[in-house]
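re: that chain from earlier
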Amino acid sequence: MHDLIARPFFLWLLCLLPLLWVLSRHSLVRMTPLQRRWSFILRALLLTLLVLALAGLRLPWQSHDVAVVFAIDRSASITPEAEAAGRAYVSKALSKQGRGDEALFLGFAQTVTSLPAPKPDGKDDTASDNSWPAQPDRDATAIAKALAFSAATFPDGKIRRLVLLSDGYDTEGHATEAARSLKGSGVSGIEFFTVPLQNPARPEVLVEKFTLPGDLREGEPFDATATLRSNVETTGKVRLFADGFVAGEQPATLKPGSNTIVFRNLRPGQNRTTYEVEIQPEQDTLPENNRAQATSLQRGKPRILIIDPAEDRLQPLKGALRAEKIEVESRPLQGLPTKIEELQGFDALILSDVSALHLSREQMQLYARWVKDFGGGFAMLGGENSFGVGGYFRTPIETILPVKTDHDDRAETPSVAMIIILDSSGSMNAQVAGQTKMSLANQGAALALDVLQPKDLLGVMAVDTKIHPIAPLARHSNKAEVSRNILRVNAGGGGIYVYTSLLEAFAQLREVNAKIKHVILFSDAADAEEKAAGEMPDGSQVPGTALDLAAAMTSARITTSVVALGGSGDKDVAFLKQLALIGAGRFYLTSDALTLPQIFTTETMRVAQSSLSEDPVSAVPVRRAEVLEGIRWDQAPLLLGHNVTKLKPTADLLLATETGDPLLATWRYGLGNVAAFTSDAKSRWASEWLTWPGYGKFWAQLTRSLMRKTGQTNGLHVETFPEPGGVRVEIDAVAADGTYRNDLPLTVGTLLPDGSTKAVEARQTAPGRYTASVATSGRGSTWINVHSPALPEGGPAFGHTPSYPAEFLNNGTDEATLKQLAESAAGKFAPEPEALFARPSIGIRRHTDLSPLFLAAALLLLPLDIWLRRRSP
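^ sequence. v structure.
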């Protein structure tokens, strides 16, 4: 029934026919019996036609029309001759296209594009028809993407046929799964055909693989091996480069197939991790595949990197470490690492008195990943720009530290009353990394609330051309609810009225009882309005300027700091900077809204004085540890200050102050070791330590405890092999006695150039042999590490740098892959072009909807019914 009638439930309306007969017999219109009879017949017919139209009566029939989608490989590995042959194949197929048939043409490489239809065979009559438009992104062949896109373009009601014309070299993977899914697409599936595009035989020489040892030790000779593949017998010259300079050269006689060239007894230079090999053959076609790179970690003396804003004050620490045979590189803030390649050249990273305001969130996340996944050592040393006052509260760096940067035991410090003024003008609606500037400022204000203690008072107001109270100046017992209110602040319009906001803050703070009274004014550096007095609500004028008001607040012991968002050239920077100066506060200028949360916490910590103590303290050993061995701690001089922190539950406290505050805490984070030393190592707080005999020994032992174990791979030997979309990692696990290690839970992790990470479980394929396929980036270095819970010291870590896109790895035709794809979809390999539009013996069932015909007939009968009823009897 449903095959003939789409909506059969409307047929119940035919039950109204008897009612129609009754109504016709009792009609008030004067009609003869003959008129009444014909009127009933016409109305019954009208009702029947309308009911059949609503029910969707349709006529079934068999369609033998064909829809063919041609997916044509136009990647860089397809030669002009192969593309011309593919075009000729398509033109010949089109010559058999019948009436009612459809054809669609798609070109693909890394992406899929639509192509104009070529003329059928023998009908090309213009030069413009001899080639297709240029194809974008030709450095990859995504067959799976092309098949999925093609399958979604078929029209309904036709026999569906998909024709893949390609050389068969897929660089992205998953082509077989995509072909297999075609069998279940739609009611009748998709008929799948693969057609090989034959690239002409041309001489080709390429670098198939280039390998270095996993770990290079400084001064220790090593071999670099290049595997070259050639399809002809030819000669050439192979050159090796190190950091762009020629490090070796040798002639090569190449035979068809694989050829191995080895550069022996090379010696790595300092900091050198990237080598490149190049083949210059006599006969060749594609130059893109003649170079290859390899990246390897280089170890020698233990190497650490120390960052300090005052690099010259690190001389005592550097001298002490170098005396212990530890190689030290120190840098100012401008030298903070930004890439994993920089970090991999060191065994440990030490941040000495470095503020979080000099680190982007991406850098913090990079350092955390390096410690966790690659076993790098990390330490933070104290100072006036470190830990809590440095703005590390709730950052990725605080996550890896063994201490918390906030401290909730501020019993001896004065109470604080603070008002935060948030610029909620229209400019705060601008987006930064998927968030508005307003939302980032809100996060900073909410974090400031978390930093303050229960005895402190906080008020928050949003200001544009008027004041919008968000949180009253009070002690907030329910911080979660207040934080939610702060985070809901939205930007309004106009610019921030500075005078009005400061006047309101002055009035509120004057009335509270607190030892420290402070205002944080957040403003757009280019849109700070009302620098002078404004009109009061009662219509009176208040004399003076915002600077005068800030001076009056300072006289009343109310300080003002300013956080300005913008660049140094913005028009209101000078005014806002002077406002902070007169207000006896601090001025922060940032062009990166993502740093706003750290700026707010930094300023709040400084005001609350909750994490900085400059009272002399002693270093008291808490437990036995190798780091502390051989040092007379009872003779250690006083340290003149420290950052107050709180120990995390699972961390090890090694040194403490007399009051129990952490002085040295350590723990293991992932594969790396992390330490927090809350005093410093230079002439401010550790000035009396510099001449103490234990100074050098302590810092050398602490530094060595952080560093990665040189060459430690726990008996794991790793090789990589390129495959579509990434590399296959082969791991051989052998115990110290030479036996295979089976059933190891091994994980292969990757860090891609864009900062994202992935992890894949390796599966055992043979005794002691494990395999994992990991995705890598087509450009830039992907760092790979192997680790396991059974290997607490971690496994090998190495870089994979693709020298050229996999598209240039082959220049022939892979008919075996094309045959396999056709078999996976129950299709056919290399059909004759005339067969693509051949009529199938069994068509596809279609339906013609008769509703329009019934409606048209009803419309034609309606005037006749009206005429009949109005005709005089």
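The longest helix spans residues 33-55.
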